[in-house]
Write a structure and sequence with these properties.
Elements lengths: L5 E4 L1 E2 L13 E2 L1 H13 L3 E3 L1 H8 L7 E8 L2 H13 L5 E4 L24 H9 L3 E4 L12 H19 L5 E3 L7 H9 L4 E7 L8 H5 L7 H9 L10 H18 L20 H12 L2 E5 L6 H9 L8
Parallel strand pairs: 1-5, 1-10, 2-3, 4-5, 5-6, 6-7, 8-9, 9-10
Helix pairs in contact: 1-3, 8-10, 9-10
The protein binds zinc ion.
Zinc ion binds next to β5.
Length: 320
């Protein structure tokens, strides 16, 4: 199966004057339409993150591309949604739950022009058009610049509030500024998100696959890294009964998702049938992949030949 590109957009519309900070984050309506047309012509289907999930897990295969928008700008609804719907594509918009209906105030200090964010009615219309809302925290804070307690709140409360306001489950998460520490991956998973995206560049290689095993033993291969760590790792066992159950459930999930015919039981002594590593580490490996997904940025200066290279070749794939 080919690597899967997850496109990152911010604003769709005319860019502000030359020299304006973050001007590159605007893609013109015309440019966006052309990019969607290219995808269609190449036989790709643009999908929201939750619709893309089975492809990321290797349960489904096909020519698919994830389409994501960061921050929740109103122009995503007014300019991008009609184009997406025209091509029968869906997309995920990551919204800042505490700033709904306001502006991108977190960018103010950088001199970025104020731009309206969708309000509740807009978000509902986005959903009605067949698209998805994900969480981009409560205040768009870098998780690395706030206390652990606050970071956990940003991850959990944004989900709860969005679900309450919109009346739909929120399964997708995106780290503001692409900032996170390893510990955040686990919190995101425990909060009940299905996946999380970063600003790391690259296309997604389907979770736990042959080519990970085949890659050379370098820092970059997460499998080898985890195998090395497994020699010293002290995997935390059941801090509480509840946690044990949760791990059990997740072992089951991972088993279902990656090894349909495998017969491991959730016993912590058991080894992963293919990778020969302790179960918790395979869990960790799966988390590392699904909760820190790389993406393919599309910016104002992305020409269409470049766009083609980004999605259909290894142009973006800089293995970590
Ligand atoms: Zn953002």
């Amino acid at each position: 199966m080919n690597p899967i590109p997850i496109l990152t957009y911010h604003q769709i519309g005319d860019a502000p004057a030359r020299g304006t900070p973050m001007r590159s984050l605007y893609v013109s309506e015309r440019g966006f339409k052309r990019q969607m047309w290219i995808l269609k012509r190449l036989g790709y289907t643009g999908l929201s993150m939750s619709e893309l999930q089975p492809y990321l897990q290797g349960k489904k295969s096909g020519r698919v591309v994830g389409i994501t928008f960061d921050d929740g700008y109103l122009n995503n609804l007014t300019h991008a949604a009609p184009i997406l719907n025209f091509f029968n594509f869906s997309a995920t918009c990551y919204v800042v739950s505490g700033l709904i209906g306001t502006t991108n105030s977190w960018d103010e200090e950088l001199g970025v022009p104020s731009a309206p964010l969708m309000n509740i009615e807009h978000l509902k219309e986005w959903l009605n058009r067949g698209h998805e809302i994900g969480s981009h925290c409560v205040t768009h804070s870098s998780l690395l610049k706030i206390t652990d307690e606050r970071a956990r709140f940003e991850i959990e409360d944004s989900k709860t509030q969005l679900e309450r306001m919109l009346g739909v489950p929120v399964h997708q998460f995106c780290y503001p500024y692409g900032d996170y520490a390893k510990g955040h991956l686990e919190w995101v998973r425990r909060a009940g998100y299905w996946a999380a995206t970063t600003t790391k560049r690259g296309r997604v290689v389907c979770a736990i696959r042959e080519d990970y095993k085949m890659r050379p033993q370098t820092e970059g291969n997460p499998l080898h890294k985890l195998e090395r760590e497994s020699q010293t790792a002290n995997v935390q066992h059941g801090e509480s009964e509840k946690d044990q159950i949760r791990v059990q459930i997740n072992n089951q999930t991972i088993k279902d998702e990656t090894h349909k015919s495998a017969s491991w039981t959730g016993n912590s002594e058991a080894s992963h049938p293919e990778l020969g590593m302790p179960l918790e580490l395979s869990l960790e490996l799966a988390s590392a992949l699904i909760y820190e997904l790389p993406r393919v940025p599309v910016v104002r200066s992305t020409s269409w030949p470049q766009f083609l290279l980004k999605i259909a070749t290894s142009y973006e794939d800089r293995h970590p």
